[in-house]
Specification:
It is a single chain. The protein is mainly alpha-helical. It has three domains: 132 residues, no CATH class; 325 residues, no CATH class; 80 residues. It is built from 29 helices and no strands. It starts with 16 loop residues before the first helix and ends with a helix. Part of the tripartite ATP-independent periplasmic (TRAP) transport system.
Length: 633
């Protein structure tokens, strides 16, 4: 994570490798045991998990870097160990707290428990600052200040002021704050899928998916870029980390794109846009989708199913831009690309765990058990064929890395729980909803623009999952007021929350890609934003069409919605880029942009007419020159 992001590779461990590795491995084994046995109640399991995470955070992320003077660094390490020891003590104290004795609700917490609660919030905010960045901690502090001092604000923004006892009881000694739904999802479901992603990498399965992508798309025009999109779609969903995925797949794809002829900022932008899209791609969809299932109370299988069509449309959008870019640059495909059959023959067994977890999730099995089954399946798959065996040390490394990769996620989710708790404790969510409705003028498109802007601003300093949690508790009620179903509203906010990775001025996935490509970070962010415009267009179609299948929808409305979204993507992209099959003059470009706007009209007659007009323009342009059609593209 320690760019300010939920998404990060495990940190370098310095001089405490064995100690940290042992603690991380123990955390993974504890999580596996709890997932299988489920013998611990939430008031015991969650404090234990969080204290374990805090211990690792303070050991992995030192107070001062090793570039600091030796005496300062050593003093900082002593402080880190003190923080870790206090975190362990707090976890023990909370896990043994007697919730059956309700006297603490009437008489207040004892002095030791009150101090333990205050210390936990302070240490959590510091751990979040070290792993995610100061913005997340700052937002939590602002919300806590509002909870305590809300009675001093003007009437339009005022709330009851809560004292320290009430704050600590609500946020620490209940399931409404730190130990609320975000941390429960992170400690349970998200952990096992992060572990699955770590094992995928150490067993060689991740490389297999990259090889498959190159075998499928490598020989076509702009092959490495298209392979990057396909590989990121496969791996990004499982890793749940746009930045980690950009670094992992980008290390291979970005140099190949540059070698083929893409500009450095284009290569970085393509990889960032594709990797960010992985987080909206079933079957896993990153951490946020599991939080969404908890917030909506809907089965994860239902979220997975309705997300398939929009995710495919997003990657179609990205592939289209990549193709148009390759055409404008006059690029060709790669030589000496392996055949798909050869690659699949070598690693087909790695597909079985993915098929298994997809089927089990659709059958509504417990996501925790599905994730654990997937972890076991990927290890079994690796050892099922002699040529893909890996040393036992690699499996241990995967178990260790899974624990280290969860640190920023759990810290951010626990801190986001404070924000969610304050919204519920003070009622500020209702005030935000009323303000949003007033500012939008009562128009859905106005509210959509305001929410999109809020998502971009929040995303400048928050990880994607944290941005979704904060924004959903505030914005979803407003979208519900416009008549949107709960799932539709949550998916719109979820998609808009992804934009922070690719939207200037702070686009972390694009910046990570720029580092690999040796490109300008800001130019890379601009390219990524253009390639990922589906993050804005497709949620708009979710709001204004039947793009998300509902029980009362007809097949006709659903099909028209998909076709209209495809038409919107093609018309807008080709109009902006000035190319369909050939270079376009200003008139046809203007017509394409008008057609794109007409796709937003909900009337099926208007949409079908616009699709017909798009088809006529395509036929007219295709007759001028068939060279592109006849080439490998």
């Amino acid at each position: 994570m320690q760019q300010p992001s939920l998404n990060h590779e495990p940190a370098r461990l310095g001089g405490f490798d064995y100690l940290i590795g042992a603690i991380a491995l123990a955390l993974t084994l504890f999580q596996i045991w709890h997932g299988l046995a489920a013998e611990l109640s939430a008031p015991v399991f969650l404090p234990t998990h969080l204290s374990w995470v805090l211990v690792l955070v303070f050991l992995v992320n030192p107070t001062f870097s090793r570039t600091a003077p030796s005496s300062l660094y050593q003093a900082g390490r002593l402080l880190d160990f003190a923080f870790a020891a206090i975190s362990a003590w707090i976890g023990y104290r909370l896990a043994h707290f007697d919730y059956d004795d309700l006297s603490f609700l009437f008489d207040g917490l004892g002095t030791v428990d009150l101090y333990a609660g205050v210390a936990l919030i302070v240490l959590l905010l510091e751990a979040t600052r070290r792993t995610v960045g100061w913005v997340m901690s700052g937002i939590a502090i602002l919300f806590l200040a509002y909870a305590m001092l809300g009675n001093a604000l003007p009437d339009d923004f005022a709330s009851k002021g809560f004292d320290l006892q009430e704050i600590i009881r609500f946020h620490i000694f209940s399931t409404n704050g730190v130990f609320g739904a975000p941390l429960a999802i992170s400690a349970g479901v998200v952990f096992v899928f992060v572990l699955f992603g770590a094992l995928l990498q150490v067993t060689g399965a991740g490389q297999f998916f990259i090889d498959c992508a190159f075998a499928i798309a490598g020989r076509y025009r702009g092959g490495p870029a298209k392979a990057s999109v396909l590989a990121s779609a496969a791996l990004g969903s499982i890793s749940g980390s746009a930045i980690a995925n950009t670094v992992t797949t980008g290390a291979l794809t970005i140099p190949m794109m540059k070698k083929l002829g893409y500009k450095p900022e284009q290569a970085a932008g393509i990889e960032a846009a594709a990797s960010t899209g992985g987080q909206i791609m079933p079957p896993v969809m990153g951490a946020g989708a599991f939080v969404m299932a908890q917030f909506t109370g809907l089965p994860y299988a239902e979220i997975l199913l309705v997300s398939i069509a929009p995710a495919i449309l997003y990657f179609f959008c990205t592939l289209l831009y990549v193709h148009l870019m390759a055409c404008k640059l006059g690029l060709k495909g790669m030589d000496n690309v392996q055949k798909v059959a050869v690659v699949v023959k070598q690693g087909w067994h790695y597909l079985l765990p993915l098929v298994m977890i997809t089927v089990l999730l659709l059958m509504s099995y417990s996501p925790v058990l599905v994730g654990l089954a997937g972890c076991l399946a990927i290890v079994v798959a690796a050892f099922s064929r002699r040529k893909t065996w890996v040393p036992f040390s690699a499996i241990l490394a995967g178990l260790r890395d899974g624990a280290l990769m969860i640190l920023p996620i759990s810290a951010a989710c626990a801190t986001a729980g404070i924000v969610v708790g304050v919204v519920g404790q003070t009622g500020i969510g209702l005030q935000f909803t009323q303000a949003l409705l007033a500012l939008s003028g009562g128009y859905l498109w106005g509210a959509f623009i305001l929410i999109a802007l809020a998502a971009v601003v929040l995303g400048m300093g928050l990880p994607v999952t944290a941005a979704y949690i904060v924004l959903s508790v505030m914005a979803v009620p407003a979208l519900n007021e416009f008549g949107l179903p709960v799932l539709t509203a949550h998916l719109i906010v979820f998609w808009l929350s992804q934009t922070s990775n690719v939207t200037p001025p702070i686009a972390l996935a694009a910046f990570a890609g720029a580092g690999i490509a040796g490109a300008s970070p800001m130019k890379s962010a601009v390219q990524a934003f253009k390639l990922a415009f589906g993050f804005f267009i497709i949620p708009l179609m979710m709001a204004y069409s039947g793009l998300l299948w509902q029980e009362d929808d007809t097949a006709f409305r659903f099909v028209v919605a998909i076709l209209a979204t495809l038409g919107l993507i093609i018309a807008f992209a080709c109009g902006v880029e000035g190319r369909l099959f050939n270079r376009l003059a200003l008139l046809p470009r203007g017509l394409l942009l008008i057609i794109a706007a007409l796709m937003l009209v909900e009337d099926p007659v208007v949409r079908l007419s616009a699709l017909g007009a798009l088809g006529l323009i395509a036929l007219w342009d295709g007759k001028k020159d068939n060279s592109l059609v006849n080439s490998q593209s």
